[in-house]
Design brief:
Strand content of chain A: under 5%
Oligomer: heterodimer
Number of domains of chain B: 1
Order of helices and strands of chain B: HHHHHHHHHHHH
Helix content of chain B: over 70%
Radius of gyration of chain B: 19 Å
Largest sheet of chain B: none
Largest interface: A-B, 48 and 48 residues
Number of domains of chain A: 1
Largest sheet of chain A: none
Number of helices of chain B: 12
Structural class of chain A: mainly alpha
Number of strands of chain A: 0
Strand content of chain B: under 5%
């Protein structure tokens, strides 16, 4: 596998992303509205319950919404693939002297990197709000978030190529988003998920969003004690990354050609 | 009138063709109610607030919004794939076509929302006949307005990704700044953080008025009292966006 070719694919995705000024501004508004509207208002509603389990809900939510933003930005690479298929760019990409494997790996890494670049400035604001208690923990958390972003990007590409239909992809992503975000600890603590329905808490324990959110809270000091060891969280995210990046490559290679894009 | 009915029939038939969309929407709405609302109910029970009962009417508005907004994604797809040229070649005026599509979007919203509203009646209480008629009228006007917003965005965005992103922004701004997810009195905390204009926006937001109107009839709470201004607010919103969408659809498509 040629690293130079891989980098060319990554670079193309990054350049494309930076050219989407409208989308970047709009997604910035998503983030601000989630923090400044939903976060502040819901904090007012549930702060007593959060305090009961030793949590400052606003800080807890801000850390969670950072992970949700990272997730949704990484997922957007799937929409790019449909745009390319619709305009015939996909066929052009397949004619380039780049192997299918390099193409999909490059796109997966590019998708993860660009979501990280996008979240970068927001992350600085979030860190100013939350503070950093231990820089080493934060570095571990950021590394885990890299794995998470690459994994989500790979998952998005895998689903997009499996669906080959922009409409089906959009609705499946909506459903997946509804379940994966709500059945994680990005928005509320496990204690209350357990009280609502023990199955919710059980599912949340295997959710990559939970691992990423908990590790980020641990890294910033929002949560002193994790419900699982940081190693388990990093391992969980590594398995997620590995499954969707490398297994996704094989799947992508098989489904890529043959048209049938809707 | 006949031409408008044809367009409405076309869009309603299309709506039922997208079975997966409907199943997906139902799954998303149920996740909101049975996961998020259930967990938040546990968290708010400490302050004796039953969030589940509060959110149920809001869920009908969430469903109405999502399904009425679907017309926009179809129109956006037609524009991108240039199917709109065929639509414009049909023996009807541009205005008839545009009005038909705005109304169809609203009716689709009503169709999808009906089971959610019935669930509300079962979980909360059944309204009287005049109350039911008022609820249905308000929600129909709201659905037409949302359909108008969706069509206006659909004809103004050139790519699916831009449409999806704009949809997200509209969703977040309208829902987070309304009483769909939390009571208006809780939103007033924003005024103390220097975000007073957002509180005003939440008060005049048609989604606030739509969901609080349902609550005024279904929740026996002194916090929610019906006012004709609620209906007026939704009617004004509906008229503005139905007109805007009709204008945008009939002129922007022609220019393309």
């Amino acid at each position: 596998m040629g690293l130079k070719k891989l980098w060319l694919v990554i670079e193309r995705d990054l350049r494309m992303f930076i050219s989407y000024k409208f989308l970047l501004i709009m997604r910035g508004i998503w983030f601000v509205s989630q923090v400044a509207l939903f976060g502040l208002v819901v904090n007012n509603m549930v702060q007593d319950a959060a305090a009961k389990v030793g949590i400052n809900y606003f800080n807890y939510y801000v850390a969670g919404v950072t992970i949700i933003t990272l997730y949704s930005t990484a997922m957007f690479i799937g929409y790019d693939i449909f745009e390319e298929a619709e305009h015939g760019v996909f066929e052009y990409l397949l004619t380039l002297p780049v192997s299918r494997r390099e193409l999909v790996l490059g796109r997966s890494i590019g998708g993860g990197l660009r979501s990280f670049i996008y979240v970068g400035p927001l992350l600085v604001i979030v860190l100013l709000i939350l503070g950093v208690s231990n820089p080493l923990y934060l570095l571990v958390a950021l590394a885990a978030m890299f794995l998470f972003a690459f994994g989500v990007s790979g998952m998005s590409i895998t689903i997009a190529v499996a669906m080959k239909s922009g409409d089906k992809y959009d609705i499946l992503i909506g459903v997946l988003d509804a379940l994966i975000v709500r059945l994680s600890t990005t928005m509320y603590p496990t204690f209350y998920m357990q009280k609502a329905m023990p199955a919710y808490a059980a599912v949340a324990n295997f959710n990559p969003l939970t691992y990423a959110a908990e590790l980020f809270r641990w890294g910033t000091g929002v949560e002193g004690i994790l419900q699982f060891s940081p190693l388990t969280g990093v391992l969980g995210l590594f398995i997620f990354f590995f499954a969707f990046t490398f297994v996704g490559v094989v799947f992508y290679e098989r489904r890529l050609e043959g048209g049938d894009w809707e | 009138m006949k031409a408008i009915l044809h367009v409405i029939e076309y869009d309603l038939r299309n709506f039922f063709r997208y079975r997966w969309f409907i199943i997906g929407l139902i799954a998303m709405n149920l996740a909101d109610l049975f996961i998020s609302a259930a967990v938040l109910t546990q968290m708010t029970s400490i302050v004796n607030f039953n969030y589940f009962r509060f959110f149920a009417p809001g869920l009908a508005v969430v469903g109405l919004f999502a399904s009425a907004f679907m017309i926009g994604r179809e129109i956006n797809m037609e524009v991108r794939r240039e199917i709109h040229h065929y639509m414009l070649s049909l023996p009807m005026t541009r205005t008839e076509l545009a009005i038909g599509r705005v109304l169809a979007g609203g009716l689709r919203g009503m169709l999808y929302m009906t089971p959610l509203l019935i669930t509300n009646f079962i979980v909360l209480r059944f309204p009287t006949l005049p109350q039911l008629l008022l609820i249905l009228l308000t929600l129909l006007l709201l659905a037409i307005g949302i359909s108008g917003v969706s069509i206006s965005i659909a004809v103004s965005t050139t790519s699916f990704e831009k449409f999806v992103t704009a949809r997200g922004v509209v969703y977040y701004m309208l829902f987070f700044c309304s009483s769909v997810f939390y009571p208006l009195k809780v939103i007033q905390v924003l005024a103390t953080k220097g975000l007073g204009p957002l509180v005003t926006f939440a008060q005049v937001n048609p989604l606030t008025n739509g969901s609080d109107l349902i609550r005024s009839f279904l929740l026996d709470s002194p916090d929610y009292v019906f006012s004709p201004l609620m209906l007026l607010n939704v009617a004004v919103f509906s008229m503005i966006f139905a007109f805007l969408a009709t204008f945008a659809y009939s002129t922007v498509l022609q220019r393309n």
